[in-house]
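Subject: for your reference before the review

Hello V.,

The reviewers asked for a structural picture of the protein, and I figured it would be easier to keep everything in one thread rather than splitting it across files. Below is the amino acid sequence we used in the manuscript, unchanged from the supplementary table.
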Amino acid sequence: MRQIVLFHSVYGLRPAVLAAADLLRAAGHRVVTPDLYGVPPVGTVEEGFALLDRIGLDTVLERARAAARDLPADTVLAGLSMGAGVAGALLAERPAAAGLLLLHGTGGTPEAVRVGLPVRLHIADPDPYDPPDEVTAWQRRLTSAGARVEVCRYPGVAHLFTDPDLPEHAPAETALLWRRVRESLPLTPASG
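And here is what came back from the structure prediction:
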């Protein structure tokens, strides 16, 4: 059983994020899903980016820090799309994190990666925000820094394919993603 903090996408704290947390709880994990916006979620990605611009990334990151502050040092940092970037940004401040669970985006390369850090990325292939060559370069950077990275690619689906309230929802790939997530938690270093 792990403690997990799950950060939402640019859309906000949508029902799909809460459902994802429930799936993780059903597998025996403790999950926190902070609302990084403090307002209702939006319906389009354009509205989400506009909302993020209004709130500001600094405020979003401060809210994420506050949500994680009292959690155990070895909490798994997890995020969906924009939330993957939030999880990666917090890693520098939480070096004992049990791992990174990144859904729908790499979130960029974290500033600090410890040797042996388990990192799992689940991503559409191709993904418009993280094209395959960028995912491969990201994986190389993290591996070179000592992380144990596993990338699960989902061909032929759109970016946020696990959200049943979006037109891009892909039920079969969503089921596969959550089966893989359940099998990889608790996070342990990937083999070879």
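For the response letter, the relevant points are probably these. DSSP finds six helices and six strands in the chain. The CA atoms of residues 7 and 79 lie 4 Å apart.

Happy to draft the paragraph if you're swamped.

O.
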